[in-house]
Amino acid sequence: MDLGSMTRAGLNAESITPEQALEILRCPNDEVFALVAAASQVRRKFFANRVKLNYLVNLKSGICAEDCGYCSQRLGGQADILKYTWLKDDQVDEVVAAGLASGVKRVCMVASGTGPSNRETDKVAGMIENIKSAHPEVEVCACLGFVTDEQAQKLRAAGADAYNHNINTAESHYTDICTTHSYQDRTDNLETVKGAGLSPCSGLIAGMGESPEQLVEAIFALREMGVDSVPVNFLLPFDGTPMEGQRVLQPLECLRILAMVRFVHPDTEVRAAAGREQHLRSLQPIALELVNSIFLGDYLTSEGQAGQDDLQMIADAGFVVEGQDKDRHPGLEETQVPIRRRGAGTQLAPNA
Q: Does the keyword 4Fe-4S apply (predicted)?
């Protein structure tokens, strides 16, 4: 494995080759930290020691007609999660304000389901307008499933900056994880939101039984699509889903995957997303040498690391929260840590 040539390519904002990406995934354990040090040079070239904080707002939980095998909200799923319809505007405002008080730069507005109706799109557009009116500096990313051209344009007009729709896995693996829609449906949706002027955010879930070759296939597909941010999730094998009992990845495996993503996407936002706590475990701070973005606090239907612990981890590792004064640690004592959702939706009473 020629780390020197990979690093030179990355520093020039050039991707490594698929063959080199496979070499990274097969890197021996005793060489992983040398790999991390090399990839860290690329990460720091484009993002210095900044960490971008993102925060999920779960607008609607459960009640989905898709059968994605990894998802706790899937059709016919038996996962023990809180299911509710749309939050009220004031509930959304309260959750967003708590996140922003902790240094969050991007708010991700997520709703379960195949895609929104026109009425639901109007509802979310109104929420986005409220957020942008109160906090014009915050980035807003919508994640509502499949949308039409008109719906995407409405979200953009309301002030949405980005749209997330993960491809989740390689095209060659897709039918093994979902049958109610296709890989092509997802890539077409990304083209729709790009056409509306929304920044495309799309990533994957590692640990769903894919091969190393399929991991590489997915990551290079995202590069070809020109996505602006790549969230890397690690499977949470929820009880009551087809992937219940799937093995948890080892921390060094996760570092290999994140290093590979960084070398393929050298100057792109790479985000450590759901599952980092369970899979990376004590090596979470090391992952900051590879990613420049994380979610703060909880995820959609699972608990993340406590927000205050995330902030402490960032500070202890010598990183700074993007947008914060570089001479002070972000929050820690005075911050309002985002409301915890205890793995089953927001604690705020939903508008059921």
A: yes
